[in-house]
Every structure is written in structure tokens, then in C-alpha cells.
């Protein structure tokens, strides 16, 4: 079973891996995003598609020949009365139309917006590819959920997805990378503190997981901030209760799950005084973020003590440009802190 | 209380009739113009989709004319439209306007809820009055649709370029001014007669192709399909090039499918969904599935081409656009996507339309020749 290392890989990989492996499958992933993967994705998608979707196409193509099936679930909704993004709802269709040489697609439809029944049916249907025993499927699902819970706890303790997966021993990284991540994670006793750089600041990073954790797409934003000495906190490192509470400050419940989480995290960073600066990173022309970003900007204008910046990335973004902006931002945050 | 609302094509005729018949004072914003768009894009988030920006322009221009209440629809996602009202309120408040914004959320079946929200806008009314107002608005809406369809049929055959469009304009004015249902009916008949009279009755009078003008279907996101200002009058342009145009969405159908059936919890038509398979097998918000479904339908009905219209960054339409090349390839129908934002230009759109019509004609000739030799 191939799992593309893109989009909600960063949220669900430990669960999917545990699920498929307990059913006797072997899980492979595409490697980290590279220029070649991105270029392959750009070639098969329409111009208007957003960067993460293009990257996802590239990862699916990279899995061709390495697996019998690719797992491209149709993630309609992962909680009641909310969606993720329209593009996730049409993702298997896009892949099928654009990547004709891709391995067979498993497009389990995950839709929890109204009932859990549909979800259970999707889990069972996916599991039946491996076994006819409903009990075994449910046990595998339970194991998956347990892995997800453990993963969530790792993230909340301040690890990035790569570190958390390495820590849990499920990382698909090459050995050397995994070891480095484990070392980094354990040396800071689970809390991802920066080291080396001069700045001693905490920065709240707001952005979709598949942007900020993809080292190629985000130009390594987390590592770079840490190298400058900053401690990075992302939305995934905050408890759900906090982001839900903060997001409820907005008069309407935001109906995008990640959008609401990011909005809550942004509000928390700007209002709670726990960070020295708030950095927002989004993909060019991201639909939900066009509005979420605007709401955050307006909120930031009311909290002048926390510097706020937005960095937009797309397939043409140059590393030097991003780096310059990051350095400038960290400088501002550091100076503001000294004052 | 002076109520205003955003423009979407000729929807204002219907909304105005509805609200005024219920005793509200209505300020119809000026028709969208360059000024509207530049106000809208100055104050809106950069990557928000075009309808949000034009709406902001409409509101500002209406508030300048003295409106103090904005009526807006809400939504439950996943399309961004559902968040428009809240974001627009923030934008306008930050600009310092004093107003009340009534966001009508889909009631999902509770008719009492609808009446409560309506009550906030127009005060308490007896049920009889609501029924009367809805009937008048409905009559006007149907008349507008009929006239627009008649104009689409008339354009390729008009004697003087632009005659059908100006006849449509006067006919719509008659409908707008009609005070009762019988007057609406008379206005419709008069309008249809006007549109008949601009055509050249002699056979072979079509501007482009004497025996049968090429047929092009327009699909896409409802706002840019219905609003001629933002789509640079695609319909008129094509019609005047001698093309018979049909759109996938008319206001009447849209209201029936998305407003009325939602309110009444009636089962919606599954047809676009069935047609869109296997290309797009799941609802993706907005009109994504409809876009694909209607493209398939136009191909089966023997249309010569399909044009998809979408606002820049529209999520559902991007999904549709992504699978349309496969539809085009499998069913052999040329498909072009036009994306609009505040930077789109008149000439750019016109050039693409001309090129597309040329392409459509050529592919039709080729198809005919092939069918001829085979037959």
C-alpha cells in the first residue's frame, strides 16, 4: 500500500500505517518532496490547482511501480458539520483523471459530517481488501486510532510530525534522518526548543500542515526558525480545546476543520501572550486561508504587541526570498522582545 | 430601514419585487461598474474570490446612497461563500460604515426559521402577504429567465448587431416596473415580441453559419455565469459572433434547486451527479459537480463546445476544471476555461472567445466530413 507523503499524511500517517500493517499489508511512502516530484505534479494538473494539490499529484506519480495500490482517501469531513477543503472531496477523481499510469487507487470516502455510520462502512470496505473478518478489521482500526492518539500526544508535547513519527518508530525517513530526528526530539526532552542561534524567542507558526511541515514547500521554515534560535509552536502543538475555544470568538463557526484550528491557534497566539511573534504561511490562492488570513490580520491589528507576518509560497517561490523575510521577521520579534 | 443586497445578474428584479411587496424600502445598488470593482478589490482580502470583492463594491455604493441594512445569504460550506457575510461585515465595519447586516442562513427545513429571519428584514406580515409577494417575485423571475433565453436564441439572427441586447434591456425594464402578476405576463409577451422583431426571418440569415449556427454551452460558477459585468458579457459576445448560447444555470433553476428545495427539504435533482460520474463522483461544494455534469450533458446533446467560467481561486471549479480535460478527451467536445478576477481584460477574453469559436467550427467541419464519408 503506497501512501503519498503529502496533504493529510501529516495528520494521519501513523493511523493509516498501523491500520494497514495490522491487516497484513506493507506500507510504503513516497520520499520527501523534491523538485522532480513537484515538476511531475505541475505537469499533470491545471495551472489553477494549488501548490499542495500539485505536490500530491507528484507524490502519487512517484509511487508508480513501488506499490500495488495507492491510498487516496476522499476526506470529505473528519468531524460533525465541517469539511476540510473542496479539493480533498474531489482528490481521487483528480488523481484518476490526471495520473493515468498511477497504481490502483483506494478511495475510501471518509465523511463524518452527519453520522459515523458512513465512516464505519468506509473502514470496513477498505479492510475487506485484506481480510473478510470484520473483527480483524475493527481491531486494526482500533490499533490505528491508538496510534493516532499517541501521535497527537507527541505533537502536543512540541514535536513536529517528522520528529513525532521518528519518536514513535513509524517514520518513513531514511535511517540517518530518522536517527537525527530522534536525537533532536530526545535531547530536548520532547519539547522542540531551538538551539544555536542568538534569538531566544517563541514564534507561533500558523499554516496548513502540508505547507509548514513539508520541508521543500515551506523552504524548511521550522528548521530555519530553530536555527535562528526561535522555539516554534504550531497549531498542532496546541490542545484542541484551546483552539476550539479561541475560534469560537469569531461570530460564525468556521466550517473548515483545519481552517478553524488555524484560526483558533492564530487567535491564541495573538491574545494569550505565550508567543513573541506570529507567522502565517499559506499557499498561493489557498481558498480557506484567503479568508482565515484576513480575519487573523484584522485581529493582529488589534494586538500590536505581537508582530504578525504572512508568507505566501507557490511553485515559483525562491529560497533566498523566504529566508530574507524569515530573518527580518525574527529580527523584528527579537528587538520587540528586548524593548 | 433601507435594505440593500448584492447584485448577481438580473436577480435584483426578483429580490426587489419580493422585498418591496412586503413593504420594505429597497436601495438597489448601482449596476456593477469599474468603480464597484476597484472599491471591492481595494478593501477585500487579496486572494478572496471575485464575487466577494464585487459584493463589497455593491455594498459600499449602496451605503453611499443611504442604505442601512444589508441582506445576505449564509451557508454551511465547504464553498467560501458561506463565510462571505461575516468577512464582509468585518471589512465594512473597519471602513467605518454604520449598518445592520442580516445574514440568512439556510434553515434546513424549518419554515418558521425562514419567517423569523424574514421578519427581521421586513417586519411582521400576515402569511397571505408573504404568499402574494413570493408569487409576484416568482413570476418576475420566470419572466426574466424566459427573456434571457429568447435573447440567446435571437442574437445569431439579429439584423443589426446589438439589437437583441437592447431589446432585452427594454423588456427587462418592463418586467421590473410591472406592479402585478398580470402586468408581468403582459411585459413578458411584449418583450418576446420585441426580441422576435429584431431577427431576420429569411432563412440563412445567421451571421456565421447559414444553415445552423454552432452551439456552445456555458457552465461554471453561478455568480460569474450570471453576472455579465464580471464575465465581460460572454453571452452577448458569443451571440453576436453568430453562436447559439445556452447556459447551465438560469436564476429560476438556481433558486428552485438551491433556495426553494433547501428550504422545503425537497429532494434535489440527482441528474448532474449521475452525469458527472465517473469523472467526479462526489459533491465538492459550489457548482463543481454541476459543471462536470452539464458538460457531459451538452456533449451528449451534440453541442459543439463548452466554456467553463470561474472566479480565480474558486475551489469547487478548480476541481471541476481539473477533470474536464478527461471529459473533453473521452466525449470529443472542445472545452475552454475562462478564469476571471479584477485583472481580467476585455480584449484578453474576446481574443480567447474568437479563437475558441474558430476551433469549434473547425472541429465541427471535421466531424461532419468524417461522418459524411462514413455515412
Describe this structure in words.
The complex is a heterodimer of chains A (339) and B (375). Chain A is α/β, with parallel strands linked by helices and 339 residues long. Chain A has helices spanning 9-22, 35-44, 51-62, 86-89, 91-98, 117-127, 134-156, 161-168, 175-187, 209-212, 221-227, 240-247, 257-272, 287-302, 319-338, and strands spanning 2-3, 28-29, 69-71, 74-77, 104-106, 109-111, 202-206, 231-234, 277-283, 308-313. Chain A has 2 domains: 2-156, Rossmann fold (3-Layer(aba) Sandwich), CATH 3.40.50; 193-338, Rossmann fold (3-Layer(aba) Sandwich), CATH 3.40.50. The N and C termini of chain A lie far apart (54 Å). Chain B is α/β, with parallel strands linked by helices. Chain B has a 4-stranded parallel β-sheet, with helices on both faces. The model of chain B has no long low-confidence stretch (mean pLDDT 90). Chains A and B meet through helix 4, helix 5 and helix 14 of A and helix 4 and helix 14 of B.
Q: What is the gist of this entry?
A:
The complex is a heterodimer of chains A (339) and B (375). With 339 residues, chain A is α/β, with parallel strands linked by helices.
Record keyword descriptors for this entry.
heterodimer; A: about 350 residues; Rossmann fold; 2 domains; two-stranded parallel ribbon; 15 helices; 10 strands; globular; B: about 375 residues; four-stranded parallel β-sheet
Note the total helix count of chain B.
15
* Order of strands in the sheet with most strands of chain A: 8-7-9-10
The number of helical segments of chain A is 15
Q: Largest chain interface and its two residue counts? A: A-B, 41 and 44 residues
Structural class of chain A: alpha/beta
How many strand segments of chain B? Answer: 8
Walk across the major sheet of chain B and give the strand order. Answer: 2-1-3-4
Largest sheet of chain A: 4 strands, parallel
User: Helix and strand string of chain A, N-terminal first?
Assistant: EHEHHEEHHEEHHHHEHHEHHEHEH
